[in-house]
Design brief:
With 309 residues, this protein is mainly alpha-helical. The protein is globular and about 65 Å long. The chain starts with 18 loop residues before the first helix and ends with a helix. It folds into 2 domains: 212 residues, no CATH class; 71 residues, no CATH class. The chain is built from 11 helices and 2 strands.
């Protein structure tokens, strides 16, 4: 179950980008999710992320992220109307509550809570896409030349949990082959079975730590300035994606300057679509952000494009 939340190499096109390209692309998505207030723009980003996650074969992992996101979404939608009283359109007059006053719920407060919850889902989906699209070791390798020791500590820390999950699953399977049934018996009996499981996991982790230390010593770690070798190359696909990301950011900033992407919730909710320019700016931003999707489809169906990117 936990393995779905971590990066797995699947040989997909979206996993073949340079790590710097992916970081820039996801950073642009994150910036847009934070600066956009318009519900239509946030919904478009959410749908784009859904297509990207589907393209990277991560819908199962995304489901786990969405479960936590929907719970937080419901909390925000329930708490926000009770706290904010700035809306003019009252849909429910509640009783007076100590320290909170009269609980009048406005349509604008509900609307703002829904938009904020949608923004939260977009941000969660961005981090889910990061886990599925890029190998964390390749990201840390970008900074290994300037901060080698810090990168090593971060690498060991980030791989600790997924490694322990895999070891725990392997140890459990071995114990089951030996006849141990973890689902039967009383609570105390099952606790004893799991305690033996965790004892083996602890010993395995200590042995792994010793092997890492011996490997570092054999490679003369800390004896002098380290060398850096990287196989990551900038290819045409990276240039296209970087260009699309920067153009999308420029188009979004230009649109925000003229009010496209902004939305007024209080004291009265604005129109969802003021004019055609609202949709035109949204289409331009989405087009540039869809460059990785377009390249992925071309890579799968066009041999000429596949040979060029």
């Amino acid at each position: 179950m936990f393995d779905r939340l971590f990066y797995r190499e699947k040989g997909l096109f979206l996993q073949s980008f340079h790590p710097a390209t992916v970081l820039v692309y996801l950073l642009v998505l994150l910036i847009l999710s934070l600066i956009y207030d318009h519900p239509l723009y946030l919904l478009a980003l959410f749908l784009l992320l859904a297509l990207l996650i589907r393209e990277v074969d991560g819908l199962d992992a995304w489901e786990g992220f969405l479960k936590a996101g929907v719970f937080l979404m419901l909390v925000v939608m329930m708490v926000n109307p009770l706290v904010i009283r700035a809306g003019k359109t009252i849909i429910w007059h509640g009783p007076a509550v100590p320290f909170l006053g009269k609980l009048d719920i406005s349509m604008e407060a509900v609307y703002f809570g829904a938009a904020s919850s949608l923004r939260l889902l977009v941000i969660i989906s961005i981090f889910c896409l990061y886990n599925l699209m890029i190998n964390p070791d390749r990201v840390l390798n970008l900074f290994s030349g300037v901060a080698g020791k810090s990168v090593l500590v971060i690498t060991l820390a980030t791989r600790l949990f997924p490694t322990m999950v895999r070891d725990l699953q392997r140890i459990r399977e071995v114990q089951q082959l030996r006849g141990v049934d973890f689902d039967t018996g009383s609570l105390w009996q099952r606790a004893k079975k799991y305690s033996g499981l965790y004892n083996v996991l602890l010993l395995s982790s200590l042995e792994g730590a010793m092997e890492i230390a011996e490997s570092m010593q054999a490679r003369a770690f800390g004896s002098g300035k380290r060398s850096v070798y990287s196989r990551n190359m900038i290819r045409p696909r990276d240039l296209f994606c970087l260009g699309g990301s920067l153009l999308a950011l420029l188009a979004a900033v230009w649109g925000l300057r003229y009010g496209y992407g902004r939305y007024t919730f209080y004291p009265e909710a604005d129109f969802l679509i003021k004019d055609g320019a609202t949709l035109v700016v949204l289409f331009i931003v989405l087009f540039y952000l869809s460059v990785p999707l377009l390249l992925s489809e071309g890579w799968k169906h066009c041999r000429f494009l596949k040979s060029k990117i």
